Amino acid sequence: MNQDDPNFPYREQIIAAKRSLRARMPDLKERFAALTRDIEAQVAAIENERAQGISPIPDVRFDELESLSAATIARIKQRGIVVVRGVFDKERIARWNDQLASYITDNHYLEKQQAKRGLDKYFSTLSSSRPQIYGLYWSKPQMEARQSEELAKARRWLNRLWDVNQGNQDGKPVFNPDQECTYADRVRQREPGDASLGLSPHVDGGSIERWIDPGYVKVYGAVFGGDIASYDPFSAAHRTETQEIPSPAVCSMFRTFQAWTALTAQGPGDGTLNVVPIAKSMAWILLRALQDDVAEDDLCGARAGRAMVISAEHHALLMRANCAIPRVEPGDTVWWHPDLIHAVEDKHNGTGYSNVMYIGAAPDCEKNRVFLRKQRDAFEAGRSSPDFVAEDYEVDFADRFLPSDLTPLGRRQMGYDL
């Protein structure tokens, strides 16, 4: 490992953590073998569904959330992902999509981006001169969606899939599932033919931290010791205690679900989301890095300050279950567990734009309130969200969403009235 490697400052911690974790698990080989059998069975089930033309990804209607069967809920929790359809009506979505396009054009985003980044030469080498992910956080469509009653209802329901009491020492819930904290993320406008946005399979929210951070080690306590069969990806215990390595590639809020809202129709082949729909896959990833064929200072390629890489070299079993999301319509939403492996198709082979607003679920807890305080300052000044590169395009943008535009619900979600 050389000094340019992002893991270099953590090399000794990685080695010490692997030795400590192995010492806690004298049955490591048996533990990993048992977990592998469980994962193999889930992979086989997903492969069988695909062979029959069945999407492995659960799909429900927004207006049916409160009446779903126990079997459907169990399937959502097993797969760690769900498409919730019809959250917004198509007329509202069409208006937001048009408003975003005008916001970008009227404020000369593309010209400002090229000038700020000096990317003229870079963009000239691409098939398109347009970016696909826009560093925008405070447009009216984004903020209106974030403070909408529809997403508030959806996120309350999704947050309640988590066990907020399991493993607590003080008897208090880990987070409040009924109160959301706004997490400002970006937008995607991917044009047909684009081949610049593909993302290989990965997991967000931290990489090497999952083995070396005391909070994460407690989150995965059942994996690293005790009864591995009792590991529950939806246990909230210790999830808000984790400490991520600061980076523009790492979310520093606790999210129960990552998500986006579809602004246009999109599906397989349209340059959109792929996932490995196995909620327990992180447990297997963690133990995989402790096997004898992985170097002592290596965690299957995980790098500090970056998304966790998932590779064919180390995770071929899981990659057999990689699949595209089903086709979604404008106003549908897609939600996935923060530990879920996901990717973005290398090329958009469709005929229309593939547009989304990234809006996940981040419930009220002290960890998220700390972030809200930093985010509010950025919001009021029109700067980039604190978790991302400080490009600050919107500081002087016309028609930016302002604090005076917040509804009472929006104010609470931004932390003004908590």
Ordered list of secondary-structure elements with their pairings:
Elements: H1 11-24, H2 28-51, E1 59-61, H3 70-79, E2 81-85, H4 90-106, H5 109-117, H6 120-124, E3 133-134, H7 140-146, H8 149-159, E4 176-180, E5 187-190, E6 199-203, H9 209-212, H10 214-219, E7 258-262, E8 273-276, H11 281-288, E9 308-309, H12 312-319, E10 323-324, E11 333-336, E12 341-344, E13 354-358, E14 363-364, H13 366-381, H14 408-413
Parallel strand pairs: 1-2
Antiparallel strand pairs: 2-11, 3-5, 4-14, 5-13, 6-9, 6-12, 7-11, 7-13, 8-10, 8-12
Helix pairs in contact: 2-11
Task: Please give a structural write-up.
The chain is α+β, with helices and mostly antiparallel strands and 418 residues long. It contains 14 helices and 14 strands. Helix 2 crosses helix 11 (281-288). The chain is globular and about 60 Å long.
